[in-house]
Amino acid sequence: MSKKGLELQPLSSWMKVNRPFIISGPCSAETESQMVETAKQIAATGKVHALRAGIWKPRTRPGQYEGAGDIGLQWLIRAKRETGLPVTTEVATAAHVEAALKAGVDILWVGARTTVNPTKPGATSFLVHSGIYSLTRNPMYLGFLLILCGWAILLRNALVFPFLPMFILYMNRFQIQPEERALTESFGAMFTGYTARVRRWI
Predict the structure, then answer these.
(1) 106/145 same-domain check
(2) N or C: more exposed end of the chain, with fewer CB within 10 A?
């Protein structure tokens, strides 16, 4: 049995749009009214080609808001019917893919994978400590910080800089520390040894 190759098709072969292809919408579909009203306002601009919304919002810490779930797909499809815009959402599991396609979602995207699986933090099986992770334990958050620094410089406003330490404190408290606890539970001495060698930021 031969292995099928991946056949890539240009966007223009299945959707008629002018470039750039603009996707817009709320980070999370929280209520039906929010989803539909936001979609109508986006469609009214005439500049957006597809509507997006997060239906499943994976979190490092279980118990946080994790999205509306399958019911949110109904809201997304209603927004599609009322605006005529194709819709898209992020999927993280095979069940997400099946539910989204069954509901009529037009475009799916697969979220990035991190050291901690955001849908199952306790099932993490591999600790990444090479490449950029040998320089900083949190390259994505460091990247965000550098973007904020660049934004402050671009604005030429010294009042922006006091917000940078606030960003670091917030990320440490509400994002990084919970991730580190999950990794310590999963990897024990392997992770604590890694934290001794590599700084949290840089």
Answers:
(1) no
(2) N
